[in-house]
Design goal:
The structure is a homodimer of 195-residue chains.
Chain A: H1 7-23, H2 29-36, H3 41-53, E1 57-59, E2 67-69, E3 75-79, H4 87-90, E4 94-99, E5 110-114, E6 130-135, E7 144-149, E8 152-161, E9 164-168, E10 183-194
Antiparallel strand pairs in A: 1-2, 3-4, 5-6, 6-10, 7-8, 7-10, 8-9
Helix pairs in contact in A: 2-3
Chain A binds a DNA duplex (30 and 30 nucleotides) through residues 1-2, 6, 8-9, 28-30, 38-43, 45-47, 50, 59, 61-66.
Chain lengths: 195, 195
DNA sequence: GAGAATACTGTACGTATGTGAACGATGAGT
DNA sequence: ACTCATCGTTCACATACGTACAGTATTCTC
């Protein structure tokens, strides 16, 4: 069995992926046939069988729109090395596929917060970044947390030693916060930045 | 028309969302009925009509599995302000819903790269971060780029003045790169970090 | 030159599915 | 008392859909 897809097979596979991306659901057998001008659903069945044999899709039996991508539809390839030569060659060195939205927990306890200020610059958390936060009432030493001080939310590093807890910025221009009362809203589990 | 959903309506809506999250496709009318023990598809139709009136879903006519969420299924809420009081209250201040994977372009020209080294610390790009890169052969002044130098990929700030182009790290401990040849692979359009 | 894999057409079957209509029960609001 | 939205049932219809099977033609491999 050949591992590589033929050009036509790849086009069918790409169409399924694109359809999921644009319509949020996989296409039906006949929608694929219509897209490529095939007169019969049987043709598409052959393609699907091949894609299934290659491990690219799963087909739920007697399930309408039952084509399941085994590669994340919204994933992007993570490259291990980039080879010299050409950017086109680079894509062959795919280490893994990641679904960006799958990197963060999907609980109802997760929310995002726009970062304000530069008090955490030393940890690479910049103004305008989106901080992904998992709600929890306390934190461990050195965790980066969202804390609430008098109606104001702030991102700082949580410190605890013995019965003592305080907040520390990661920017030498700011002082640790030891005297003011605060409560922990949650722990920062991720940072997302858009240029 | 009331804006708020009743408990049962919310459960139906949540089931649709959960179904998309777990099965990658919206449920059929009868699958919803089966989930809640309804004896008839008509009951579900009523619910769907209500959810549609509330602007939560769209229903494609005569389209199998044609329920379309108008709120991102994999989205997380972005909070504007966090109010004092309780974490539970905070969630009411939702500014918008974002689909994390939708923040980045979905072209085939997008890939990700694991950041190595600390040469861009000053821009908040830390070792271990995932850099999202859009392929392009050149860049503008001050863009953060992925450049290839003798088989080695590196992330630096692209500088151009007149006919002169060079690369600059954002870390005072490193020197600008002016003498070595390099080629631009793409432009860094985002940073993703996981704690 | 035999055999497999690929690439199609055509026809057919059973059914899962969206849709629609008619109707009943309950509870809240005025 | 009356209305109205919500919540539910039953029956029915047309069809979009997955699936299966029987062919044909071309290309590639051994």
């Amino acid at each position: 069995m050949k591992e590589q897809l033929t050009a036509k097979q790849k086009k069918v596979f790409d169409f399924i992926k694109d359809h999921i991306r644009s319509e949020n659901v996989p296409p039906t057998v006949r929608e694929i046939a219509a897209r490529f001008g095939y007169a019969s659903p049987g043709t598409v069945q052959d393609y699907l069988r091949i894609l299934k044999d290659r491990g690219l899709i799963n087909i739920k039996k007697n399930f309408y729109r039952g084509i399941e991508l085994l590669v994340p539809a919204f994933g992007i390839p993570v490259l291990g090395r980039i080879r010299a030569g050409a950017p086109e060659h680079a894509v062959e060195d795919i280490e893994e596929w990641i679904d960006v939205s799958g990197l963060f927990p999907r609980d109802n306890d997760v929310f995002a917060l726009r970062v304000m200020g530069d008090s955490m610059e030393g940890s690479g958390i910049m103004e305008g970044d989106l901080a992904v936060v998992k709600k929890q009432p306390s934190a461990g030493n050195n965790d980066i947390v969202v804390a609430l001080m008098e109606d104001e939310a702030t991102i700082k590093r949580f410190k605890s030693r013995g019965n003592n807890v305080w907040l520390e910025p990661d920017n030498p221009r700011y002082e640790p916060i030891r005297e003011r009362a605060f409560s922990v809203i949650g722990k920062v589990v991720g940072i997302i930045r858009n240029y």
